[in-house]
Design brief:
The chain has five helices and six strands. The chain is an alpha+beta fold and 205 residues long. The chain has two domains: 46 residues; 141 residues, Nuclear Transport Factor 2, Chain: A, CATH 3.10.450. A hairpin with a 3-residue loop joins strand 4 and strand 5. Helix 2 packs antiparallel against helix 3. The radius of gyration is 32 Å and the shape is rod-shaped.
């Protein structure tokens, strides 16, 4: 009788130990699986795929502080390309300038108004002139906020009989604003001014 009870007690202890071991192993597997799942999701979320010309390109998401200099330079470059790229078409000019003015404050609007009042844009259309700009470099000082920048560029003004190449030097300050479809970099150019804009050479056609 006592032997049977002892055997039952021993069997019960073994079953209990086995059950505890199974439960512990299951808990460890669940924890490991959960950890790896979070790790995988975090890795996936840090990658962005951009569709360009039918090809999927991988980009890596990062904090803004990691890319301030890159985004600031690109913001300045895009603004200048939009502001100074002109064709003898009123709609093209208006479209480019509208996009450019979303990236800057009233100082850029004032420059635009001065050019419009002087008949510059009307002259571009009447003379079938095309204007292009090549941004050579953008220097941004991140040591103080708002960030001061200088933009060095080369303009090409193509007329019917000649092409004028001009140097362009501008400066301004960048402050942070909310990102939007019109302003994807989240910067606003302020106190923008043209320091130099002089002829380098004239090529006759």
């Amino acid at each position: 009788m006592f032997t049977k009870i002892k055997n039952i007690d021993t069997a019960f202890q073994q079953i209990r130990q086995f059950t505890l071991a199974v439960v512990l192993c299951s808990a460890l597997v669940c924890c490991f699986t959960t950890y790896k799942s979070f790790e995988l999701v975090e890795g996936i979320q840090s990658k962005v795929y951009i569709l360009s010309d039918g090809k999927a390109l991988e980009a890596v998401a990062a904090e803004r502080k990691d890319n301030v200099a890159v985004e600031a330079r690109d913001h300045v470059k895009v603004f200048h390309e939009l502001f100074f790229t002109l064709d003898p078409d009123e709609k093209v000019i208006q479209n480019n300038l509208t996009k450019a003015l979303y990236l800057a404050d009233g100082s850029a609007k004032q420059a635009y108004d001065n050019l419009a009042e002087s008949g510059y844009y009307a002259g571009v259309i009447a003379g079938n002139i095309s204007q292009r700009i090549q941004v050579d470099s953008v220097r941004v000082d991140l040591s103080a906020y708002p960030y001061h920048f200088r933009c060095y560029a080369t303009q090409s003004i193509v007329r019917t009989t000649s092409t004028v190449t001009r140097s362009l030097l501008t400066e301004g300050w960048l402050r942070n604003v909310s990102r939007s479809d019109h302003n994807p970099h989240g910067f606003l150019i302020q106190r923008w001014s043209i320091l130099e804009n002089k002829d380098l050479k004239i090529t006759n056609h």
